[in-house]
Design a protein that fits this description.
About 50% of the residues lie in helices and about 5% in strands. It is mainly α. The strands form two sheets. Strands 1-2-3 form a three-stranded parallel sheet. The longest helix is centred in the last third of the chain and has 30 residues. It is globular, with a radius of gyration of 22 Å. It starts with a strand and ends with a helix. The chain binds adenosine-5'-triphosphate (ATP) and magnesium ion (MG). Adenosine-5'-triphosphate (ATP) binds next to helix 1. The site of adenosine-5'-triphosphate (ATP) has 21 residues, from helix 1.
Length: about 350
Amino acid sequence: MPRIFSGIQPSGELHIGNWLGAVKNWVNLQHSYDTLICVVDLHAISGKYDHQSLAQRTREMAIGLLAAGVDPEQATLFVQSHVPEHSELQWLLNTVTPLGELERMTQFKDKAQRLESVPAGLLNYPVLMAADILLYRADLVPVGEDQVQHLELTREIARKWNTEFARGEAFFPEPQPILSEAKRITGLDGQAKMSKSLGNTIGLLDSPEEIWQKLRPAKTDPARVTRRDPGTPEVCNIYHLHQYFSPPETVALVAENCRGAKWGCLDCKRVLADNMIAALTPIRERALELQAEPDRVDQILGDGALTAHRIAAQTMREVHDRMGLLSPARPVLSSPAQRDPEP
Ligand code: ATP
Ligand code: MG
């Protein structure tokens, strides 16, 4: 069965862009593929972050994913730092990754320009992402469009490593992206990609009041200065969001009422809010239940880490061997995941 790997950073709230662009795909595909889903906490520390809340945010992200339908019976859900082979493989892959390729990554350039001092971890982020995927020798990676460039680099790293250490044989498969229809959701500012780190999001677990408070001031078509000014739905982010939350007849009505100035933007947003609330309420309710059971969530993540670690350890044995590293005379117990007993 082909294998899927994907990840999400606990860098802020799980938002509708993550959900529409990636998480919904994970939930649909988990039944047909061998699926690994990872809360990538080591990625989330590549910029400035609050270390006091990281552990809690990591668990919250797992809760959001479980509430959205990631099923631990179908998919392996785990935390990246619980499987230390991610960091180890990253180092080994660093040795075949061209610096120039890292410097030209769009996400690096975007994020770096907002910082006074750029940590090397931000530059090396795509190498860790390559390690995440290649560690499980995954075939497919369901992601949003913003990650396609990183995935191209993952394929290049896989090719280089295979040429150098596997005599060109495809030890590491070259993973392909799976994009959803909603591959790039725009933020409520109407400009940038909806991003946890930009504060232009609607949270998947937001309450009805929070959804409305965030939608009310959201950017619409600038041509609609007053209620009587006709608009162009295609340039309005609210119209695009209707396409993911409202039934087709409502989407058609929104377009007509916008073009004919029959609705004000607030009317249009109210209808969107109601449909969004209806779609997200069951997810929010499941999350509230899980929040009351943190031990159960930690148990799921612990089981996930064990499953992931077994695959990772096997890959690393072969990688060590092919890269010519001396095997230790006896197993070295070095990581929390490795110390856990086999069931
Ligand atoms: P950050 O701002 O910290 O980078 P993020 O919101 O971009 O956070 P990530 O954890 O980087 O979220 O990405 C998780 C997944 O969600 C990835 O597959 C990514 O491509 C996808 N994704 C993120 N933002 C969007 C968006 N606006 N539209 C569609 N998919 C998205
Ligand atoms: Mg991102």
